[in-house]
Write a structure and sequence with these properties.
With 155 residues, the protein is mainly alpha-helical. It is 71% helix and 4% strand. The chain starts with a strand and ends with a helix.
């Protein structure tokens, strides 16, 4: 059977990670890289939530905003650098840092749930501030990450 490229919109040029059409799962080393990266990213998000809650209180989901914005900057940087220079990083390390760590660190589901909670609590202005903050500030920081990668990598 022909190889089917495991592709994504963000990394269309990565050809090192392949899955045979007859395989049910990706190779163990790839799954382990994502698993460990995800565990570390999730733990980092948990610690950030704890720290931001102690620092700024629980009236607004600052920790979720922070991790989503930081994750956007990270993926803007990593995505730009690794798309322009696909061999700049070992494929397993790339999976560990992007799909694993960044996937475990950032959180769309918590962002959606917390935004809904602000509306239910009768604070629609905070709800909209959270939605727009995550989307707009996250988008801006993805661009910042892209620009840093372009500057660093001569892209």
């Amino acid at each position: 059977m022909p190889n089917l490229l495991l592709s994504s919109i963000m990394f269309p040029h990565f050809t090192e990670i392949r899955l045979m059409a007859s395989d049910a799962l990706p190779p163990w080393d790839q799954m382990l890289a994502v698993f460990i990266g995800g565990a570390i990213g999730s733990l980092t998000r948990f610690v950030a939530g704890y720290a931001f809650g102690a620092w700024l209180g629980a009236d607004f989901p600052w920790a979720t905003l922070f991790v989503n914005v930081a994750g956007s900057a990270w993926m803007g940087w990593a995505g730009t650098l690794l798309t322009a220079k696909p061999t700049a990083m070992d494929p397993l390390l790339r999976l560990f840092l992007t799909t694993g760590f960044a996937g475990g660190f950032t959180t769309f589901s918590t962002f959606a749930f917390e935004s809904w909670g602000l509306f239910q609590r009768g604070e629609p202005l905070l709800g909209w501030a959270n939605i727009l903050g995550n989307l707009i500030v996250g988008f801006v920081f993805a661009y910042v990450g892209i620009m840093i990668a372009r500057t660093q990598g001569g892209i």
